[in-house]
Amino acid sequence: MRKDSLKRYSTVVVVSIIIILVAMYVSVSNGTYDISIKDIISTIFRINPDPNNDLVIFEFRLPRVVIGALVGFGFGIAGAVIQGITKNGLADPGILGINAGAGMAIVLFMFFFQGKFISTGWLSIFAMPLFGLIGGLTSAILIYLFAWKNGRLDTQRLILVGIAISSGLGAVSLFISLKMNASDFEMATAWINGSIRSANWKYILATIPWVVCLFPVILKKAFILDLFQLEENTVKSLGISTEKEKAILLLSAIGIVSACVSVSGNIGFVGLLAPHISRSLVGIQHRRSIPVAGLIGMILVVVSDFIGKTIFAPAELSVGIVISIIGIPYFVYLLLKAKV
After folding, report:
1. Is the whole-model pTM more than 0.85?
2. What does pLDDT average to over the chain?
3. Domain enclosing residue 192, as ranges
């Protein structure tokens, strides 16, 4: 059983990585200006690079693909953590309002500092994840306060409260964006809908530290998430400080989500879809399902972004809308399945 399970896990990881690499290649090579694999290799490895290929790959396509992969990975593992903490398969950062809280804080940042910071400047780019973290924490605290009942977290109320808070914060973000000047309004609208079209290398450098630092923390405590599937009294009897561990895991998830939202906006449903697909492939053990959820999230975002920028060319559909088209039917399916 263990050998079969390990073999299955290894196969899923390898196949997922291959799919990601193929999706990245297709996204980098295809577009208004097609580039062959030979030209991509020569450009990346600096073998007689062509200036036109250099511009298209390094300034436009590659940063977008890399940020899409980072964001998908972050949302995927954060969704797996939140579903593990709440013991609710319908929970994810978007539905619980964490995305909306982080997004609202970033829109507020853009509103109060409009005209004072350049959106691609280092100070602005590294400050936005911090604002997103504050917004994500605020929304998480509100959700906990309203979903707390009889000394415990009511998972049914958690979903309803999360949807309500998400809708409310989304409305506030839209109202604030309407008060902005034209250039900031355009950027805020992209953030609200979820888009990675303005990705650049500075965004990547601002996101990587959060993912690199917090993912090992989550993976180290994956066995705690396995224990959380038991009754809380049973977990406490094992000597686990449940509230402390929940706080560490939740803060790690919110930190990753905030960093992702700061560069991509409110991309929903990745944190819902990826963990479900992951568990169906490798089982419920979080030490395996969390990394696979991250890989599935990468596939979802990279492929959805490619679909959004090519299927309606020369017009472009944001990645958040494409994933929502996929995610809403799946969410309805999960709701119906939960009732059976």
Report:
1. yes
2. 83
3. 2-23+63-339
